[in-house]
Structure prediction request, 291 residues.
Amino acid sequence: MPTEPPPAVASPDAPPPAAASPAAASRAVAPPDAPLLAAPLLAAHEPPPVEILRAHGASDLVLAADHAGRRIPEALGRLGIAEHELTRHIAWDIGIAGVATRLSAALDAALVMQCYSRLVIDCNRDPGVPSSMPERSEATTIPGNLDLAPADRTRRVDALFTPYHDAIRALLDRRAAAGRPSVLVALHSFTPVYLGERRPMHAAVLYNRDARLSLALRDLLAAEAGLVVAENEPYRVSDLTDYTVPVHAERRGLLHVEIEIRQDLIADAAGEAAWAERLARLLPAAVRQAA
Ligand SMILES: [Zn+2]
Prediction:
């Protein structure tokens, strides 16, 4: 008989349906230390971590969405949290996959998306920082992330983080080798209310070492009727709280911007389409101004 999974990944409220699958069951009977941890995190039938659209897109813009997905590898159950938590902003950037996909289509721009939840591993963090596999997000404790063994962490890095960033790196390398310019656009969304505090801005541009494209886009967004646009709020780019912009854009000296859109504005298809249309119109103009 399968034994219970180890406490670090157990779901206290209900066993995940995936536990009944042959792959998960074979992992569950293993002793909690060696063979279990050596198994790959994703079963063969699970979707790959990275989705790439228009890899050979004609646009100079390269889009990345670190928090596009909310899947949890079956081997991890639900990380011990309730089902409804997995549709909240703590699990993913609500609406951003729709915006990114439409923007990619409108501009013929390459797009790289992470399909698994930021609660498993945050692909916009260095894996060495505590918030990479958060023990708490907003006010929710993540039982499946408590006291993770180094091998558990390594499995998540290997299965989800590394393929995602390898895909961005390879894409940018290929373009550079072909003599093509690349402008990195990191797409995110933020919750309208965080820990009880309402956020008034509709969108924001974030940057750290190179503000050129961010400020050009900020000015264009702010000129849109009725839009409240923030700069480095509610977050800012840093080496501790970000990875995609510092590693893939700043280190290469690429023009870049990190964009945050408030989630209630892109909560349905009409909102996603409106924001994709807006960014498809403004981003190329901002690039021309910043270059
Ligand atoms: Zn995000």
